Amino acid sequence: MSVTVERLITGPIETNTYIVYNEMKDCLIIDPSPGVDPVVDFIGREQLIPLAIMITHGHFDHIGGIPELVDRFPLLPVYIHPSEKVLLERPELNLSMMMGIDFTYTGKVIDISEGPFSVGSFNGTTIVISGHSPAGCAFLIENMLLCGDILFAGSIGRSDFPGGSQASLVEGIKAKFLSLDDSVVVCPGHGGRSTIGRERRMNPYL
Length: 206
What we know:
The protein is α/β, with parallel strands linked by helices. The protein has a single domain, classed as Metallo-beta-lactamase, Chain A (4-Layer Sandwich), CATH 3.60.15. The chain has helices spanning 37-46, 60-63, 66-72, 85-89, 91-94, 166-177, 196-202; strands at residues 3-10, 15-22, 26-30, 49-54, 78-80, 110-111, 115-119, 122-129, 136-141, 144-148, 151-152, 155-156, 185-188, 194-195. The strands form 3 sheets. A 6-stranded mixed beta sheet has the order 1-2-3-4-5-6, with helices on one face. Helix 1 (37-46) links the parallel strand 3 and strand 4 (49-54). The longest helix has 12 residues, at 166-177.
């Protein structure tokens, strides 16, 4: 079943919030930043059925929209890696304090781990790479890699936040991303798309 990935730029630092949807009109919401009206509007306009919020990592600009979405869709489950859950509850770790905000989310979440996953009509693979955050997740759905702040077009994620390590980040990208096919589309947490092939050839960090 083919999927479409819609990018919506949201929040105070232009975060990519993604809506992954298929012909059944099911959708996944990836990394909702604060200010989710464009997300809700798109879902309504396309008559989509939200199945889950999936979080690549627990930094504020990727989680700040969770309460708004759960308020709009009360039964919507939130998936996050267990090692990232502590960031939801601690503003100094989710970096909201750097923006003068004291953000926490203490609602129920569902653990996601490395390996295959199935959410409703979606099947994919979770790839875990530490270095930008404790256990950053990338979701490979068909040939689309939704990778948060692990890898960008021509760059990699910052590693100077709590729990960061550039060595771990680069090692993880080389071992787990560069083993993917060149045609896989990289959908990062900020900025435009790329491909694994392009990053393999041109990314100066790799």
